[in-house]
């Protein structure tokens, strides 16, 4: 190491006086040009505003600019090289990425269980991306730790736990469901944290055949095993049948296994069904089982006085998964996992007391160092976007969004029943509207095997055509004994009644020749 006054080895860039040379690197001040970076951000924001916000939510623009994978690689020039590119070229890259991305904020994006754009949440995401916090200690994330505490308390009130509870924001509803299984197992077998699986009995968990696939993944990931997930039949509307649950619990006991958790669903992915939570809670209470409700999708109905009855009984749950980024539009991702327990089960199950983060002799109240509750270390400030949005629109504003989305779903269902060539699969209970489009060539064919075989091929072709045209996006799938049908999801307050009419008109226009 030496102090030098020199030019940088013949380079055109001068080295500042008193530079220090370490391992062949001159340490003489920052090497990043902050002013140039700020100029780049200033030039990028108009692009974001015009292309990713205004155009991406304009009903007259395309939902997507479809390109097959190989062609898309060429459009984006994905290869990384030794040297960097000029700022103007990077700005072009930004525009290209926006151009070829699906515009999920578009009023005619109905493809997933999230949609629309809330501008307050969007600004919150800009802020957290700029600040780049990690919500594990009050020391490094004071505002966001406090905001998470407040928003979790409010969500716990919505669930109906009058004596309070606890919670944490997780990176997805799938992880929230995994949290539930892990906490339930710990509650049943506390020694598993230290001793592992070797001394455990065969644990069995129960869920509906309509549950989210993350329940099975949780069993696999946590070492319980997918064969120890006992699947309970659902009725024709997609609701778990309580009597069948009781049979499955008794079966597990007779086999010598140890039942420990029931995972119910409030808002199933395809049909939007709500399990009968009160009856399931009775069975859990009878057998001493942890009662988890996956309300990732349906939890939004808790904001509505008109529709919260769909979740009657959720207040009896031991844990709840609820994703405000779905129906409430808080922006991906925003997922809360809530527990009724107030004895510190998060810390008991997950804490590792890392001394470099969670020192107990800090100068402030270390109860606000919440990170040891989580299975993560670094954790995003996901609560902030929900908090800022709630601050902006209020509880009534969130309720209005839910009520309007479900009213639009009811309107679409009624239009389907009136329109020739469309067949409603079942009356919507939530914002999922499921239906078939039957082209003219099949309308006089009897409902036999050949009819269903041909109808199965209709939805994929129409989906391909709508995406290549870019007019809208609506999902489809087969389900249980039903051939491919459309599943329309309605969320965004930017969606109009005219958009509902357009969906049916466009499907008919795209499929009438099939």
Name the helicity range: 25-40%
- Spatially, the strands of the biggest sheet line up as 5-11-10-9-8-6-7
Beta-sheet strand percentage?
A: 5-15%
> In total, how many beta strands?
15
Largest sheet: 7 strands, mixed
Mean pLDDT: 94
SSE order: EEEHHHEHHEHHEHEHEHEEEHHEEHHEEH
- First-residue to last-residue Cα separation: 77 Å
Give a description of the structure.
The protein is an alpha/beta fold and 514 residues long. 39% of the residues lie in helices and 14% in strands. It has 15 helices and 15 strands. α1 (34-54) packs parallel to α3 and α5 (142-159) packs across α12 (383-418). It is globular, with a radius of gyration of 27 Å.
Task: Give the gist of this structure.
The protein has helices at 34-54, 69-76, 87-99, 119-131, 142-159, 173-188, 192-195, 214-221, 242-254, 277-287, 345-350, 383-418, 449-456, 458-469, 497-511; strands spanning 2-4, 19-22, 25-27, 109-110, 166-170, 203-208, 229-232, 258-265, 290-294, 319-322, 335-339, 422-424, 432-437, 473-479, 482-489.
């Amino acid at each position: 190491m030496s102090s030098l006054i020199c030019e940088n080895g013949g380079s055109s860039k001068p080295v500042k006086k008193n530079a220090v040379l370490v391992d062949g690197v001159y340490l003489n001040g920052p090497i990043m040009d902050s002013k140039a970076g700020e100029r780049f951000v200033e030039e990028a924001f108009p692009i974001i505003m015009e292309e990713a916000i205004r155009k991406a939510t304009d009903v007259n623009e395309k939902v997507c600019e479809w390109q097959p994978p190989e062609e898309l690689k060429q459009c984006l020039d994905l290869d990384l090289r030794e040297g960097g590119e000029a700022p103007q070229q990077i700005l072009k890259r930004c525009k290209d990425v926006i151009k070829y991305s699906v515009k999920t904020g578009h009023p005619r994006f109905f493809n997933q269980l999230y949609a629309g754009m809330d501008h307050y949440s969007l600004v919150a995401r800009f802020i957290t991306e700029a600040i780049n916090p990690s919500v594990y200690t009050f020391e490094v994330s004071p505002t966001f730790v406090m905001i998470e505490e407040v928003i979790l308390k409010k969500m716990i009130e919505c669930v109906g736990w009058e004596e309070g509870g606890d919670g944490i924001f997780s990176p997805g509803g799938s992880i929230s469901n995994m949290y539930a299984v892990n906490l339930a197992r710990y509650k049943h077998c506390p020694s598993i944290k230290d001793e592992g699986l070797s001394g455990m009995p065969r644990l069995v968990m129960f869920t509906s055949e309509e549950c989210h696939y993350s329940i099975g993944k949780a069993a696999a990931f946590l070492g319980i095993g997918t064969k120890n997930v006992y699947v309970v039949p659902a009725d024709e509307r997609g609701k778990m049948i309580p009597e069948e649950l009781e049979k499955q619990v008794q079966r597990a006991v007779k086999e010598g296994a140890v039942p420990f958790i029931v995972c119910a669903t409030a808002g199933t992915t395809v049909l939007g069904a709500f399990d009968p939570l009160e009856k399931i809670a009775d069975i859990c209470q009878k057998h001493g089982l942890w009662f988890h409700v996956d309300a990732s999708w349906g939890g939004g109905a808790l904001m509505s006085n008109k529709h919260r009855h769909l979740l009657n009984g959720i207040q009896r749950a031991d844990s709840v998964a609820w994703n405000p980024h779905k129906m409430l539009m808080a922006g991906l991702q925003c997922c809360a996992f809530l527990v009724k327990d107030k004895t510190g089960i998060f810390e008991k199950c997950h804490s590792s007391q890392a001394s470099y983060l969670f020192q107990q002799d800090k100068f402030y109240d270390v109860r606000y160092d919440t990170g040891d509750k989580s299975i993560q270390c670094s954790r995003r400030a996901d609560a902030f976007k929900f908090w800022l949005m709630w601050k902006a629109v209020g509880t009534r504003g969130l309720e209005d969004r839910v009520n309007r989305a479900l009213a639009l779903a009811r309107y679409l269902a009624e239009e389907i029943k009136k329109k020739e060539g469309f067949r409603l699969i079942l009356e919507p209970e939530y914002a999922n509207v499921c239906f078939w489009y039957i082209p003219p060539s099949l309308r006089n064919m009897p409902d036999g095997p050949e009819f269903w075989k041909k109808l199965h091929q209709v939805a994929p072709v129409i989906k391909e055509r709508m995406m290549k045209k870019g007019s809208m996006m609506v999902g489809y799938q087969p389900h249980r004994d039903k051939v491919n049908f459309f599943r329309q999801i309605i969320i965004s307050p930017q969606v109009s009644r005219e958009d509902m009419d357009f969906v049916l008109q466009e499907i008919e226009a795209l499929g009438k020749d099939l």
